[in-house]
Amino acid sequence: MTTEYSHSIRNRLFIVLSGDELEYVVTTNDRQVVTSGKVAVTDKAMLTDVLANTPPLSEIYSSVDLIWSHTSFVTYPQAFTSTNDQRDLYKINHKVHASDRLETGSLNADIAVTYAVTYDLLQLIKSKFPNVTYHHEIESLFKYVHTEIKTTGESIAICCDSSQTLMIVKNGQQLKLINRYDTKDLDDIFYYVMLAVEQLELDIEQLTLHWVDASVDNLNNGIPNMFTPYIKYVTKIDLHPNISSALSTAITCA
User: Which of 25, 91, 214, 220 has minimal CB crowding within 10 Å?
Assistant: First the structure.
């Protein structure tokens, strides 16, 4: 069977796995969205069924990109090359579950990242799409901030949904902090942003806060009112309105 998105070098498949959901987008090579969707995926059996019975996911694509979302990570210098040391560093900061496998990615030429993936789900995806490449959502966000947000001074970029906040703090192109926080509401987001301001001694009169609302139904629209009394410049980053920030930044930076 041939469809508008099958067997074509013009089309790419992007997939996000985020713990209890799989989101996908099919694009042309010039990044125009052809189709997209979300399905529940919590285990190997559900993913097997989704890959077999969801039409866009049962096709063949010129390239397939898998993005792991809502999973913990650690960053460190690229010179830190020992796999055992990387694993030990991750285990100091995060719990490793029996179903986890640790993977390594790259933010730039100087900074690497190690993150956890669900091994069984990764093997299923690789079996279905032998040409798949995969990375953590923080890699896409970091590249997006670096290439799309032009800042010359101190800046904080946050990407917030209903359960987590990704934060990148830079001074020009110098990275000062990159982290993931569990956040359930605006108060949690405010706490971690202002904690970074205090710990890094950022100048709130010169600081710019860039924010992406990755929540459903714009739950974080109160961010400007909450931060404007404390941070002089607060700017919203608008991504694709119908797909997640993890997919939107991955497509932009692909």
Answer: 91
Q: Is residue 142 within 8 Å of residue 112, measured between CB atoms?
A: no
Q: Please name the amino acid found at residue 23.
A: E
Residues 159 and 221 in one domain: yes
Domain tally, the chain:
2
Same-domain check for residues 248 and 185: no
Q: Name the residue range of residue 39's domain.
A: 1-149+241-254
Q: Which of 216, 217, 157, 141 is nearest to 189 (CA)?
A: 157
Instruction: Please name the helix (run of DSSP H) or strand (run of DSSP E) that holds residue 165, with its range, or none.
Output: strand 164-171
Q: Are strands 164-171 and 154-160 parallel, antiparallel or unpaired?
A: antiparallel
SS3 17: strand
Q: Rounded CA gap, 113 and 88, in Å?
A: 13
Distance CA 211, CA 223 (A): 8
CATH code where residue 74 lies: 3.30.420.250
CATH code for the domain in which residue 200 is found: 3.30.420.260
pLDDT tens track for 43-55: 999 999 999 999 8
Task: Report the predicted TM-score, pTM, of the whole model to 2 decimal places.
Answer: 0.91
